[in-house]
Every structure is written in structure tokens, then in C-alpha cells.
Q: What sequence folds into this?
């Protein structure tokens, strides 16, 4: 049933009009930023993809701004008008939470190893149990000289932030569950009491097929595996 009350809402009307305007602009193929040179802010340092093509041109940035505004307008229309049907290409924004890794406070503590685990298994396990996406982002999260990019080759601004764990989820419940798991690993635990690390060592030993019942690890003192490097 058509929501006539929403149609009479002037703000809903303005949002619909702006959505139509942005959609036409994005589909027109015409320049999206035709401001004169003096009216524009200074351009940022150029960023290139793996093919050497610049991906943060003035036109690209203008298109990104319009796409973000379009997404926000659609989200507002969904909240204000239950009868509104979003475009087929609309994807609801995921919930996010950044958990900064206290590397400066605890420089010798291997937070990343505890979060990722042997062959990435700890990270994968947390994702499977919660349904959330858990990734390491920020300075030091990738090898030097390798640009941190999304699948669509767009630059990720988080590469210049302090090292952190980014948790993404469709629901608040999944976000809270995953964030809670990660937060526990971001609290330093004494080596002797760190059961999580001992479990990772046992798992790594099993993966490397080095477990023997008559041996004890020199790192954790647990029987059943040889000396292995801490994760």
C-alpha cells in the first residue's frame, strides 16, 4: 500500500528529488566536477593502482562523493518511508567497529599473532562463530611498498591510521560478539597464564605434524609438541 503520509512529507519529497538528480548525474557521463581551478581545494597526492593508473583523480573523488550521498539518501528514505523500495544496486552499509592495537604501550607483545593464529585459523574461527569480518588494518598491517587496497582497487585510507582491528558485520549482535572476542586478545596476559597462546602452539605443532607425546615445548612447557616459534 502506498504511504501517502510519506509522500506529503516535504523532507521525503526533497530526498527523492535529490536522489533522482544524483542518479542522473552519475549516469550522464558528463564531468561531475566542472568548478574552475580557483574554486577547488588542492588535489591530494596521486594514488595509482597495480596497473599504474591513477585512481584518485578529481573526477573519481567527485563520483565517490555523489555515491556516498546517494547511499545516505537511500538509507534515510528507508527509515522515513517503509513503502520506499531501494534501487536494485543498493547495499545496506555494514556496521563497523575499530579496535586499536596498543602496540606503543606493549611493544613486545604479539597481538597480531594471537588474533590471526596459526595459518590464520584463529581469525577464521572467530569469523565463522560470529558471522563478522575481522581484518587487521593500519600502518604495519601489510608489507612495506604494497598498497593496501580493496577488491575494486580503490585506495584504503585506513593504511595511514594506527594499527587496528576492523570488525564488520550485518547485525549489531554479530558485531558485538566479534568485537568482544578481539578485545579479549587485545588485553595482555602474562606468558604463564596465556592459555590462548598455548592452544595456538599446540595447533601449530599439529599442523606441522611435530607432536610427540614424550616431548615438551621449551616455550610453554606443554607436552606433546616440539619447540616452535611463538605465533
A:
Amino acid at each position: 500500500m502506498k504511504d501517502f503520509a510519506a509522500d506529503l512529507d516535504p523532507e521525503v519529497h526533497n530526498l527523492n528529488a535529490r536522489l533522482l538528480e544524483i542518479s542522473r548525474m552519475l549516469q550522464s557521463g558528463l564531468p561531475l566536477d566542472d568548478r574552475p581551478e580557483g574554486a577547488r581545494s588542492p588535489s591530494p597526492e596521486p594514488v595509482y593502482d597495480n596497473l599504474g593508473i591513477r585512481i584518485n583523480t578529481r573526477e573519481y573523488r567527485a563520483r565517490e562523493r555523489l555515491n556516498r550521498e546517494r547511499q545516505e539518501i537511500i538509507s534515510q528514505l528507508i527509515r522515513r518511508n517503509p513503502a520506499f523500495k531501494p534501487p536494485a544496486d543498493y547495499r545496506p552499509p555494514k556496521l563497523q567497529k575499530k579496535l586499536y592495537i596498543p602496540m606503543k604501550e606493549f611493544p613486545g607483545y604479539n597481538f597480531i599473532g594471537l588474533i590471526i593464529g596459526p595459518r590464520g585459523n584463529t581469525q577464521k574461527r572467530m569469523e565463522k562463530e560470529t558471522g563478522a569480518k575481522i581484518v587487521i588494518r593500519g600502518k604495519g598491517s601489510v608489507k612495506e611498498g604494497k598498497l593496501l587496497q580493496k577488491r575494486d582497487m580503490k585506495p584504503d585510507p585506513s593504511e595511514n591510521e594506527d594499527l587496528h582491528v576492523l570488525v564488520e558485520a550485518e547485525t549489531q549482535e554479530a558485531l558485538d560478539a566479534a568485537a568482544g572476542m578481539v578485545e579479549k586478545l587485545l588485553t595482555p596476559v602474562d606468558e604463564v597464564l596465556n592459555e590462548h597462546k598455548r592452544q595456538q602452539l599446540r595447533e601449530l605443532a599439529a599442523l606441522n605434524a611435530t607432536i610427540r607425546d614424550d616431548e615438551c615445548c621449551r616455550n610453554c612447557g606443554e607436552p606433546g609438541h616440539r619447540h616452535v616459534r611463538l605465533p
User: Anything to note?
Assistant: The longest strand covers residues 95-100. Residues 99 and 165 are 5 Å apart (CA to CA). Confidence is low (pLDDT under 50) at residues 144-153.
